[in-house]
Amino acid sequence: MPAVLDSYYDSLEIGRTADTDEIKKAFRKLSLKNHPERSAGPKAEAEVKFGKIAEAYDVLSNPARRAIYDQYGERGLKEGVPDGKGNVKGGKYRYNNNAVEIFTAFFGTSSPFADILGATGDAPLPEFYGELTGMQLPFEKKKAAPVKAVLEVSLGELFNGATKTVSYTRKKLGEDGVQADEAVETQLFVKPGWEEGLVATLPGLGDEGVHVLPGDVEIEMVIAPDDLWSRDGSTLLFKHAMTLTEALVGKIIDVPTFDNRVLSVPVTQVVAPGDMLTVPGEGFVGGDLVIYFDIQFPKTLTPAQKKSIKAVAM
Length: 314
Description:
It is a single chain. The chain is α/β, with parallel strands linked by helices. It contains ten helices and 15 strands. The protein folds into three domains: 8-133, DnaJ domain (Helix Hairpins); 143-223, Sandwich (HSP40/DNAj peptide-binding domain); 229-296, HSP40/DNAj peptide-binding domain (Sandwich). It has helices spanning 8-12, 20-33, 43-60, 63-79, 99-107, 114-117, 129-133, 155-160, 244-249, 303-312; strands at residues 81-82, 88-89, 142-143, 147-153, 162-173, 179-190, 197-202, 212-213, 217-223, 229-232, 235-243, 251-256, 262-267, 276-279, 289-296. The longest helix has 18 residues, at 43-60. The termini are far apart. Mean pLDDT is 84; it is low at 117-138.
């Protein structure tokens, strides 16, 4: 009985319903595995198998050739197909033992170690390489995870700008390849008006390791709580406590600013709970200052005080 020839699908170890991506994946894997300069077996046998893999890919990756092959087989592809008039047409496909050219066109290089040298674009490294050679696959070093450093600043420092010391601990790699904790301090100028959150990144000054690139340090700024002051974007908020009498009859409020001035702000209208007073241009970097009032109601009133309030007849 004559030997049954492998089909192109057999050569690529795929089914007849394989899609384009599956065909490419199979060629990538098998052409690297069976390349004569890389195969673990006899070179002559590898050359034959490498050629069959290349020819199979050359046919099945071309939709027109694949369609003829699927309907008429290899003979129809190479010798032509019936034209309905007793003749044949086509049959012009020839494989010219140009496996290396097909390989080069696919990988962009003729090197059988394209996957290791990084010439395969985004193609993944073949899983079988280590099994064939006993060598560890090379890998691209990734950067270590960033070290987080928290910098606390006051609203005064944030208003005027200030040079602050940032402290953090990182993993330092010694000459013996052993990691050890290292305390680090660095200086950072806080610019006026910075928002809370990530304010600076120190590239490569974070954790070190044997199989990783030095990580970064990410400095996150937080604002220290203040009993009287807060912020909302560029708006500076100031809480002022006033008595009920002051809320009713008015007063002049002295507001100490962060640049060592005192703003004298007159309150001439009756102040109700929830009322606020805006002073333009006195906030962060051109923003406003908003004074909100904390009205202190008396806990008790004497009979005389009650009588006096009733006499006002509001």
